[in-house]
Amino acid sequence: MRRNASLIASVAILTPGVAFAQAAPVATPAAAVAEPDAARLASARQLLDQIMPPATREAMIQSMLTPMQANMRQGILQSEGMQKMLGDPKAKAAFDQFLAKQDARTGTMLRESLPGMVDAMSRAYARRFDVAQLDDLKRFFATPTGQAYVANSFSIMADPDIAAWQRKLMSQAMTHMQDDIAAMVKDIEATQQDKK
Q1: What are the CA-CA distances from residue 126 to residues 26, 42, 45, 53, 134 (Å)?
Q2: By C-alpha distance, which of 77, 86, 92, 65 is closest to 157?
Q3: DSSP labels for 123-170?
Q4: Domain residue spans in the chain?
Q5: What is the DSSP string of 22-36?
Q6: d(CA 143, CA 19)
Q7: How many CB atoms sit inside 10 A of residue 62's CB?
Q8: CA dihedral (124, 129, 131, 134) positive or negative
Q9: H or E element: which one contains 115?
Q10: What's the rounded Cα separation, in Å, for the pair 25 and 5?
Q11: CA distances from 4 to 12, 88, 116, 120, 175 (A)
Q12: Using CA atoms, how far apart are residues 141 and 48, in angstroms rounded to an integer?
């Protein structure tokens, strides 16, 4: 039973929403970050509207998220411990329901936070590129090659090589995560015993 709880905890830790959050670098506190120059910010917003057109933003994000979620799921399912646990039809049904709920929550969270993400990206671009550089980027993304990049960049996550890499990574993560969670549970139980 403890092994199953560890596996379930592993899956919870590795769901896409959490994975997105954990992949983000630790940022400097907002008070310490300089406000971007207004002209650079305006140019950066134009660039973001060009490379992530407002009418297609949700679809672009979904085209990246869907294959990533599928790859993570397949990687998790490749874990020997998870395969054993999911041999029980009731456990498999509960697991499938859990993943469906997590997928839906992640999609909702990303859709709702998309305006904030675009604003944050605009500000990040404005801090890193001056107006001339942003204009160069806009010119590039107006070219056929730039348009091809924009059209395909978010779907790169669906490429078979990337999918295979993600599945392998998730399978490895599950192996280590199970051991790490088991050790953590043991450590926590030991601290609880010390209190008695």
Answers
A1: 19, 8, 9, 18, 8
A2: 65
A3: HHHHHHS-HHHHHHHHHHHHSHHHHHHHHHHGGGGGSHHHHHHHHHHH
A4: 2-8+35-173
A5: HHSPPPPPGGGSPPP
A6: 34
A7: 15
A8: negative
A9: helix 89-128
A10: 29
A11: 12, 11, 37, 39, 13
A12: 10
Q: Which amino acid is at 173?
A: A
Task: Give residue-wise pLDDT tens across range 24-40.
Answer: 455 555 557 889 999 99
The length of the chain is: 196
Q: Three-state SS for 37?
A: coil
pLDDT in tens, 107-134: 889 889 999 999 999 999 999 999 999 9
Task: For residue 68, give Cα distances in angstroms to 73, 153, 154, 158.
Answer: 9, 14, 11, 7
Six-digit token string for 157: 């996550």
